[in-house]
Amino acid sequence: MAWVFGATMLYALVLVGHGIPFWLATFLFVAGFILAFDADRQADLGRRGPGTALRACVYGVCTSAVVTLVFEYVFLVRLP
Hints:
The protein is built from 4 helices and no strands. The chain has helices at about 1-15, 20-35, 40-45, 50-75. Helix 1 (about 1-15) runs antiparallel to helix 2 (about 20-35).
């Protein structure tokens, strides 16, 4: 639980708060989170190698795009 809290605080205070575009910060957070916290499960399923990193990047890109577009065009929030 402490690692999840720390990762979330890193995202909110460091990535988003210091000039990195919101979409890039969100991509880095989602992809990094998946790589860090899902590695053991993927290894147990026999999914080692570049496929796991590629999957994390695809999820990161999709999540980043959807979250950014929803915030800008649905909620009308200007993002950093």
